[in-house]
Design goal:
The structure holds two protein chains of two kinds. Chain A is mainly β. Chain A has one helix and six strands; from the N terminus they run E-E-E-H-E-E-E. Chain A has one helix at residues 33-42; strands at residues 3-6, 10-13, 18-22, 50-56, 64-70, 76-80. In chain A, the strands form two sheets. Chain A has a four-stranded antiparallel beta sheet, with no helix packed on it. In chain A, strands 1-2 form a two-stranded antiparallel ribbon. The longest helix of chain A is centred in the middle third of the chain and has 10 residues, at 33-42. Chain A is elongated and about 45 Å long. The mean pLDDT of chain A is 87. In chain B, the strands form three sheets. In chain B, strands 1, 2, 9, 10, 11, 12, 18 and 19 form an eight-stranded mixed beta sheet that branches. An eight-stranded mixed beta sheet of chain B has the order 6-7-5-14-15-16-13-17. A three-stranded antiparallel beta sheet of chain B has the order 3-8-4. In chain B, strand 15 and strand 16 form a beta hairpin. By secondary structure, chain B is α+β, with helices and mostly antiparallel strands. Chain B starts with a helix and ends in a 30-residue tail after the last helix. Classes of the chains: A mainly beta, B alpha+beta. The interface between A and B is medium-sized, with 29 and 25 residues.
Chain lengths: 89, 402
């Protein structure tokens, strides 16, 4: 995975971006509130397939954006700012 | 150096049975070591090790073969020192030459901040039984004459911590030594048998589904590297683990000997010499989780520019091979070993970039846990339940370069 398309700056080398983690999800089958909290804080889906995750373009526009990426092939399927908080850090 | 060694091994292959006392998923170092210690220490030989490919084809065949114990928290130092001790007698015990060589490890510091953390590391290691001492630049130069103390004019060496007991061993041979020892005792190793699911009886795990049929078991141990989340999903088990690629490369042969292993926290890289004379260089794992074993040019570029500052002779060598493994990195950078909360399923995972050095300790202590049902004291801190009870073992010392 060498390049990522920033919705603002276009196709840029991966070194310019920071990985911000995937959207944390807690499975519905976990019902105990305390266990749900532990799951939210610590556990990862670690999906082998398409994930939705956050990236920060630290060496460019300095904005967060959302990417959909296949973790088996490292192909980026989609990048966009539609889910981003528009904060400039 | 190791060509055709496989043909000299005494490996007895068996047809799979339909039931075993213990089924271990994953024929890498940890899986085979657990089988070996179950058979030799506890007399449990009705054991199958189920491997999707060939033994040692995963991370046991891709690591950078460094054995050390200079970690950052007491629990880890004690655990890895136990492993280091077991490694030093492994050749004698198994009768196999694993090419174990004690070399020492120099951990370089370029700033006062790094000097402070290296001093702290020395004190902690000494208190927990690992031999680590501070050395000044001249002493570091005496241990490793190739070192450029000015760091190419960019990264001056202010000092280093010297972990005296650090060693390297040939990774394939460690896997083969354990496989041979276990198979001689009657353990079945089933290659090319991918686990596709877990057999369940209510909540309890009672065996594994494989492409070649079902195998029932008293206890199932997941000793999978990289793909552990897939196995855990079969039991609806949630793990604090992400899979990250880790890259490394070797150069062509260097005619002289590089004495110790050189490691660097601030530059995030480490260098050692293989028994063939090649220089083996690695760095941190890639920041984004991925199951891809694609190597990248970015890595070569950043890593070579850093190591050539410290060891200028590397500029005259050529890169021979580059490869990638996928490692399961836990949320607190410490391994997860023991019960899972799912009846009948044990786990040894979260070995990230520190699994090879832990093979003898991980295997022997997991075997003790399976055989006696009691968690050995060295393993107690590393349970999966530590996350829920807020006792995570955040260890900066666990990744290859910290």
């Amino acid at each position: 995975m060498l390049w990522l398309t920033c919705p603002i700056c276009g196709r840029r080398p991966i070194d310019e971006f920071s990985f911000g983690g995937e959207f944390p999800t807690v499975p519905d089958r976990i019902t105990d509130p305390a266990t749900r909290d532990v799951d939210y804080v610590w556990m990862f889906d670690n999906i082998a397939g398409v994930t939705t995750e956050r990236w920060f373009h630290h060496a460019g526009c300095r904005r967060w954006h959302t990417a959909r990426r296949d973790t088996i092939t490292d192909a980026v399927l989609h990048t966009g700012i539609e889910d981003a908080t528009d904060t400039v850090l | 150096m190791n060509e055709f060694v496989e043909t000299l091994l005494d490996l007895q292959w068996h047809e799979p049975k339909s039931t075993y006392d213990v089924v271990i998923i994953g024929g890498g170092g940890h899986g085979l070591a657990t089988a070996y210690y179950l058979a030799t220490r506890h007399g449990i030989t009705n054991v199958a090790v189920v491997e999707a490919n060939y033994i040692g084809s995963g991370n046991s065949g891709r690591n950078t073969t460094i054995i050390r114990a200079n970690y950052g928290i007491p629990e880890s130092v004690r655990f890895y020192q136990h492993s280091l001790d077991l490694y030093s007698t492994l050749e004698e015990e198994t009768g196999c030459w694993i090419m174990h060589a004690t070399k020492g490890l120099l951990w370089l510091a370029h700033t006062e901040t790094a000097m402070r953390s290296e001093r702290a590391r020395c004190l902690l290691n000494t208190a927990c039984g690992a031999e680590t001492v501070m050395v000044d630049p001249q002493a570091a130069k005496a241990i490793c004459p190739q070192l450029d103390l000015s760091g190419g004019g960019r990264y001056p060496v202010l000092g280093a911590s010297h972990h005296v007991g650090a060693a390297t061993a040939r990774h394939d041979r460690v896997v083969w030594a354990y496989a041979q020892g276990a198979m001689r005792m009657g353990v079945h190793v089933l290659q090319n048998t991918q686990v596709t699911g877990l057999l369940r009886d209510g909540e309890r795990v009672t065996g594994v589904q494989t492409a070649n049929g079902n195998i029932s078991a008293g206890v199932v141990l997941s000793a999978v590297g990289g793909n552990v989340t897939t196995i855990a999903n079969h039991a609806e088990l949630r793990l604090p683990v992400r899979t990250h690629p880790l890259q490394a490369f070797v150069t062509n042969g260097y005619a002289q000997s590089l004495g110790p292993i050189i490691s660097d926290t601030e530059l995030f890289c480490y260098v050692s010499q293989t028994a063939r004379g090649q220089m083996l260089i690695g760095a941190e794992f890639d920041p984004q989780p991925s199951y891809s074993t694609q190597s990248s040019f970015n890595f070569l570029q950043s890593c070579t520019s850093k190591v050539t500052h410290l060891l200028p002779f590397l500029k005259n060598l050529r890169i021979l091979r580059q490869w990638t493994g996928i490692c399961d990195v836990s949320a607190d950078f410490s391994p997860i070993i023991g019960h899972t909360g799912v009846d009948g399923l044990l786990i040894t995972t979260g070995w990230g970039t520190w699994g090879f050095k832990a093979i003898p300790a991980g295997g022997s202590l997991m075997a003790e846990l399976i055989a006696t049902g009691k968690t050995p004291p060295l393993l107690e801190p590393f349970g999966l339940d530590r996350f829920a009870s807020d006792q995570a073992l955040a260890d900066q010392g666990s990744t290859g370069t910290r």
